[in-house]
Amino acid sequence: MKLPKEAIVERAFQLSTIVSGSITFLIFSFMFYMALPLIREGKIFQILTSTWSPLDDVYGILPMIITTFAISFLSVLIAFPISIGCSSFINEIGPKQLNRYLKKIVQVMTGIPTVIYGFVGIFLLVPIVREFSGKGSGMSVITAALMLSVLISPTMILFFNDSFERVPASYLNAAEGLGASRVQKLIYVIFPNAKKGIIIGLILAFGRALGDTLIALMIAGNSTQIPGSLFDSARTLTAHIALVIAADYESLEFKSIFASGMVLYLFTAGIVIVVRHFAFGEKNTR
Amino acid sequence: MNKTTENIIAGFSWLSTILLLGAIISITGYLCIKGYSVLDFRLIFGDTKVFDALLLRKQVFNGLFPAIAGTLVLVITSVVWAIPVGIATGIYLAEYANTAVKGIFNLLFDILAGIPSIVIGLFGFALAVFLHKHVSQAIKPCLLISSIALAFLVLPYIIRTTQVALEGLPEDIRLSALALGATKLQNIAFVLLPKSLSGIMSGVILAIGRCAEDTAVIMLTGVVATAGIPRSLLSAYEALPFHIYFVSSQYTTPEELQTGYGASIILLAICVVLFSIAFFIKRRLTYMAFYRT
Questions:
Q1: CB B220 within 8 A of CB B129
Q2: Has residue B5 been placed in a domain?
Q3: Per residue in B73-96, pLDDT tens?
Q4: pLDDT of B105
Q5: Is residue B6 included in any domain, yes or no?
Q6: Which of A94, A162, A218 lies at the smallest CB-CB distance from B248?
Q7: Which residues on B lie below 8 Å from A153 (Cβ)?
Q8: Which domain range does residue B265 map to?
Q9: How many CB pairs under 8 A join A and B?
């Protein structure tokens, strides 16, 4: 039999669990509630598939969706080889004494605020891109993608590193016993055994790039066209939300940001579900 | 595999490491070179005397003091919401919940952890609009709304670190107090929680770092460029990360831009120290660190 005090405390714990769990739904319902007029009037589809031209009273977010994916995809494309190279360095290739410090540096890098990447980007990276492309302001898709790749690399490296370290030592010893070099161990033993971790790390990094606001807001240029080249100015969904906020509450423009919010929510939730499926298979618990 | 291919692979590995280090050294080095000359009391307190500012006797107009104070108050209020709820939830999931319940809530908190901070900011904004319409005209985006939204943002970190720390305790620690006749709650309060304190603390420190650096949530929920020291929970406020963003987009004089560099160095130092401590306490934090969006 339970003591009353025990039961009360358990109820309190349970209540806070239910409250925290419902936040996930609460956030979505608020987005949905605010975007509801769009859905009721059947305008949601138009908003998702048309361009942003306020003069024609069309407030579509398609350019932002495309830009979000373009920038995230590019940044993962840049960051992935570097992260694989770097985690290989930390795990096998590099000198052991150096690697401890390197890992510390990478860990600390995960704590650098994104607003600082954006700030340095404006004054350091933007002029370089401007020089290189020879046109425009230098605020472009590639500028943001480059900075984002610096943001997501450390976390990708740590994640890869974790999955490299989980490869059983006996496998590595066996390969070593057969005369495998460091690179051969990496290619034939570590990579194949850490494949799952590498894929999960990639997807998570993509999600992280997708959700970042400040870098794109500060150095992607924020024009509302669909970007035609790497050096075009463009606006992501996240930056779009940050920029439109001052509008009139009843306008279509204002409601469109909640459509943006819903799109972002659903994509990141989808990524989480895919990753969990990959990581745990049929099991539900960690 | 021939020797050349091997050398190319090893060379690539060296190259990517050098590239990454190069990128991070240029970013931090650039900040320090540009900003170190402004790092003094004038940067923080402007023309006001240090003690007058600290005792709130005089307002600071051209320094970072209001932004630093705003960030401090914001972090404290957010963490005050998030810690009790987060730890209680972590305890429930680790010690009371059955497998099915655990599975559902783990999924919910993973989704919550993955939601971009700007979306949580947008939620906070919608909440303020909703409360303004239906509860009280006095509520508009303010410190209170920001701290609630930020608490939502960091809640999953605290829950997860608490849960993982508790679940990682070995069976003999778990059972010995129970064998001596302790109740479940006594076991949790006097044995399991103290044993997993370091894990829980690392989560709390990560959460503090996250609150201090986040810009996206607060820019939709009440932060402004000039507000002075926050007077109440229902007032607008300044914050360091927003100051950096604002200066970068709206600066008019070189001096104003310089305060941006100064603020960046201060914020960078705060976050690097907090993250180092968190990683020092608990080495396996990769999973947590990943979800910061």
A1: no
A2: no
A3: 999 999 999 999 999 999 999 999
A4: 94
A5: no
A6: A218
A7: 20
A8: 12-290
A9: 285
The class (CATH top level) of A58-280 is mainly alpha
Q: Residue B288 contacts by C-beta under 8 Å, 6 or more apart in sequence?
A: B157, B160, B161, B203, B206
Rg, Å, chain A Cα set: 23
User: Which residues in chain A are closer than 8 Å to B30, comparing Cβ atoms?
Assistant: 120, 123-124
CATH of the domain at B46: 1.10.3720.10
Nearest-CA neighbor of B166 among B89, B69, B57?
B89
Q: Find the residue in A nearest to B128 (Cα).
A: A30
Q: How far is CA B120 from CA A258, B72, B112, B207, B213, in A?
A: 11, 20, 9, 15, 15
B152's tokens: 């939502």
The ipTM is: 0.91
Residue of A27, A250, A284 to mutate for B, most B C-beta atoms under 10 A = A27
Question: Between chains, do A213 and B215 touch, taking CB under 8 Å as contact?
Answer: yes
A283, closest residue in chain B (CA to CA)? B103
| Locus of tokens 């200066």 | B247
Helix axes B3-35, B254-281, angle to 10 degrees: 130
Instruction: Please report, for chain A, the start and end positions of each structural domain, with discontinuous segments joined by +.
Output: 58-280
The total of structural domains in chain B comes to 1
- What is the pLDDT, as a whole number, of residue A6? 87
Q: Is the dihedral of CA B215, B220, B222, B224 positive or negative?
A: positive
